[in-house]
């Protein structure tokens, strides 16, 4: 499955999830340095769902996407690394933003 197809599937699933406000692709797949076996790094900002709910969301998306590549998720609401947060927001690719 192509990278674009995987990303479109991720976006579709996140759009249907209540509580997801924004999603970013970051890391090698965002900056153009991904190799054949690179994973997908996804950062998600929520409307305050619990860590347990976030982990269930991440597992569900990983299971529903038809790819052999790993998908790693970061919950932006609980990220305690300001440098990484800045890199995700400023250098990552915005995949989804919920509009009120």
UniProtKB/TrEMBL annotation:
The alphabetical list of record keywords is:
Transferase
The UniProt GO MF terms for this protein read: transferase activity
Task: Name the InterPro entries on file.
Answer: NT_sf, Polbeta, TA_antitoxin_MntA
* Ranges where the Polymerase beta nucleotidyltransferase domain occurs: 8-98
Which N-terminal stretch is annotated as signal sequence? none
Q: Which domain of life is it from?
A: Bacteria
**Pfam families for the chain:** Polbeta
Q: What is this protein called?
A: Putative nucleotidyltransferase
């Amino acid at each position: 499955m192509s990278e674009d197809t995987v990303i479109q599937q991720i976006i579709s699933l996140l759009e249907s999830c209540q509580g997801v406000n924004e999603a970013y692709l970051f890391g090698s797949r965002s900056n153009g340095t991904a190799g054949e076996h690179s994973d997908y790094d996804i950062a998600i900002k929520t409307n305050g769902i619990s860590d347990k709910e976030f982990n269930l969301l991440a597992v569900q998306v990983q299971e529903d996407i038809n790819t052999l590549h790993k998908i790693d998720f970061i919950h932006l609401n609980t990220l305690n690394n300001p440098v990484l947060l800045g890199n995700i927001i400023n250098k990552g690719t915005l995949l989804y933003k919920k509009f009120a």
